Request: fold
Amino acid sequence: MTQEQLILQMFLEEVESKDRKYGHYHSGSIWAPDRPTVLYVDTVPIGLAITEMTERVTVRYFDGEYHREDSRLIRSAKPWQLTHSWTREQDVPCGRFRVIAYSPKKGID
Reply:
């Protein structure tokens, strides 16, 4: 595929306007994080999604909330404070993101 054959069409759907709350630009009702994002490579549509990854960690129920077992709060707690607490495994956001590309057309894997 030569450079002339590979054409990326990108549609910027950001509306320029003055908005007191969000500054000079806002997305309005055109785009939102829960709406599909589609990139066209020539005439082939490719759907894109960005998701935050999770990791399984041990959390402890303490003082009415779950806290990571390796957190400073749990490590500094006295043994008698942990007598009525318990632990469990839970998936929590880890701060890493991944981009997923998929076919937005039905019946295509």
About this structure: DSSP finds one helix and seven strands in the chain.
